[in-house]
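Bench notes, bay 3.
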Amino acid sequence: MAQPRKSSGSPKRSSSKSKGPPSAKGAKRPSAKGPASAKKSGVLVSVADSHIDRMPEVADKLRAAGLDVGHMMGMTGTITGAVDPARVDELKGIAGVSGVELERSFQIAPPDSEIQ
């Protein structure tokens, strides 16, 4: 009969040297380009029907114009990302882009508040 192995007494530790919360597999970390990166706003870019089959090319042009591409959604013809609001008009002028909308946010009052 085999003898059970003795534990060394120290708990096993992960060899990962990552500090902070784990990220999603394949997720890109935002690039830190100094104070300008804090000024970026979320955008939704609509790709023209004539360019749906060339979305990667459109995304490359958007990146060259300063967009940090988040997601490309071929079924809806949209690309999400973040850009300096001063460059939104530049994105609108790219071939294959039919529209650019700035991200909007809102907050509703809690259910127990006086204002409904």
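Next record in the batch:
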Amino acid sequence: MPLSDKQLAAKRANAARPITAQGKRNSSRNATRHGILANRVLIKGESRELAIQSIAESGRHLDLMSRNEHRFDRHCYRALEAFTPLLEHRQNAETIARAKRSQLIDENKGPGE
């Protein structure tokens, strides 16, 4: 389906790259705003001391999260260790029950069946 003139104009306007110096500066800070691929840590007008404090707090928070995740992993591992024998026992019981069921079926069959 072909685009209407209005749709084509909107598409071209949305695809336009910044032309002015200010527009290019704004566009270059997109990564800083999103924080993923930022080349700069500070935003214009931001206090260096507050930024360093914020980064340190983030590091402590991440360290705490990491330690809690490690504790949770150990807890899950211990729980799995505790339940493994129970699961093995259940599997063994099911295997025995299937064998007995099969034996009973065989016993109830007459010769030549």
